[in-house]
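S1.2 Input.
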Amino acid sequence: MARHPGPERRRKGRLKLPQVVRVRPSDADFHDFDEILPTLNAARDSVYFASKNQFYREGMRLFVTYPYSDTLGSINREFVGKVVRIDDLGHGRRGIAVQILMPIYLGGKETVR
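S1.3 Output.
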């Protein structure tokens, strides 16, 4: 499902420096997975990463922790996101574009690890 090059539609710049992101479905009954992956690029309101997981579908809602760290004392921000595009990257890898929809707050605080 690779998109053809065309005019740039993004409103915000992309960060091409890899960040770590944690993604899992918001509906665990649909498919239960939990992945920690580097981003290929990211912006304030979206992340793009590669995965061999075949369960991603356009429109699927996810819990996204971005940036993610499992270091004690680090602050992880969690969001609800939606898969907006899936690209075939070859060799079983797919590029997953996720739009960040809204933050998740637990008791008015961000998740602390």
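S1.4 Remarks. The radius of gyration is 14 Å.
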